[in-house]
Amino acid sequence: MDRALDGIRVLDLSRVYAAPAGSMILADLGADVIRIESPMGTDSMRDWGPFVNGHSSYYFTANRNKRSITLNLKSHEGLTIFKQLVAKADIVLENFKTGTLKKLGIDFDELKKINNRIILCSVTGFGQTGPMRTEPGFDPVIQAMSGLMDVTGHPDGEPTKVGIPIADILTSKYVAIGILAALRMRDNNGVGQHIDLSLLDVQISSMANIASGYLNTGMESKRLGNQHNNVVPYQVFDCKDQPLMICVGNNHLFRQLCILLDKPEWVSDHRFQTNEKRLEYKDILVPWIAEQMLANTADNWLEKFSQYGIPAGKVNSITQAFNDPQVIARETVGTMLHPVMGEVKLTKSPLRFSGLNIRCDLAPPILGEHTNLFLQEELGLDEGEIAALKKQGVI
């Protein structure tokens, strides 16, 4: 079965998570993604645990289905090789500090002289413009600056970061979306372009209802723990054995909840007849619901909620999540053969197509794993030439 991006080549100069995870999406779709790192190694994520036989499981999360070569871009020979690769590539992805590519002589103006169809995607903390354009930007910094931490956590607690690098993860999706859009535009006009993608921009745009509410009313959202800012009841409740998240998103679902809880009087109570009213009187309604929820186990409630069409789910641990029958049924975990570790397990792409094959065959590569063979096949270098490049520190 064909893959969507067969024939597309990505030269991936990026490190850590946001940009590499974006190129991994392209690799899953069939693109030939070539990771290019310094011979000394430039991706600090390789040093982040937990480790399995000396290899970082963290690194695995953003680098499946890629090949890895080493290349010293600070050397004349390394730059020459890189430019040769650019001539036959479709995309260059990088997340150096703003201005680094220009210093190296491979910014977009130079790259398009080599290949006017090249697409350059630059991922930085703060973008190519603005007073912070040269500052480093890591996910927790972005979560803090964007206001996300200020609205995350319990009302009486401190600002809290999300449990995963959400700004990085969201940015990775925009890496893929932006590149796919640029490829489509290139189909129309025949030329590439430069994509300027900022983690801060992504997280600001992802503030969703928090942002639109503030921009149009001036109201600042506050930390509400596991409650919703604008919908009631829409939060976690303790059951007899473990917590349960329930989402009563409209008046119909609230009526269903009242029937389920055998509280028909709540339906006619003027304080609860609309979401706006329920929000106003949530300090009365929520404790009443909480009292009812303690009467049964989470599984018992889930069965009832399903019967009444009310969205609900247990607050699972990671172990419980990966052993959930629905997660297993969707085959979300795949196995790949690593050259050192043998079989490794990784989450698979969530995309499911009726007529496309999603790639899941190359384990995250060892640093420089494919350098020799790649240079032989792509540039026709022989063993002696490759040995000389190694001796010079070029690869």
Walk me through the structure:
With 395 residues, this protein is α/β, with parallel strands linked by helices. The protein has two domains: 9-207 and 331-392, Crotonobetainyl-coa:carnitine coa-transferase, domain 1 (Rossmann fold), CATH 3.40.50.10540; 243-314, formyl-coa transferase, domain 3 (2-Layer Sandwich), CATH 3.30.1540.10. It is 40% helix and 15% strand. The chain is built from 18 helices and 13 strands. The chain has helices at 18-28, 57-60, 76-87, 100-104, 108-114, 139-145, 166-189, 199-205, 208-217, 251-260, 264-268, 275-280, 282-293, 298-308, 318-322, 325-329, 371-379, 383-391; strands spanning 9-12, 32-37, 51-52, 55-56, 66-70, 91-94, 119-124, 194-198, 234-238, 243-247, 312-314, 333-338, 342-347. The strands form four sheets. A six-stranded parallel sheet has the order 5-2-1-6-7-8, with helices on both faces. Strands 9-10-11 form a three-stranded antiparallel sheet, with helices on one face. Strands 3-4 form a two-stranded antiparallel ribbon. Helix 1 (18-28) crosses helix 7 (166-189) and helix 7 (166-189) packs across helix 8. It is elongated, with a radius of gyration of 25 Å. It starts with 8 loop residues before the first strand and ends with a helix. The mean pLDDT is 95. Keywords: Transferase. Pfam families: CoA_transf_3.
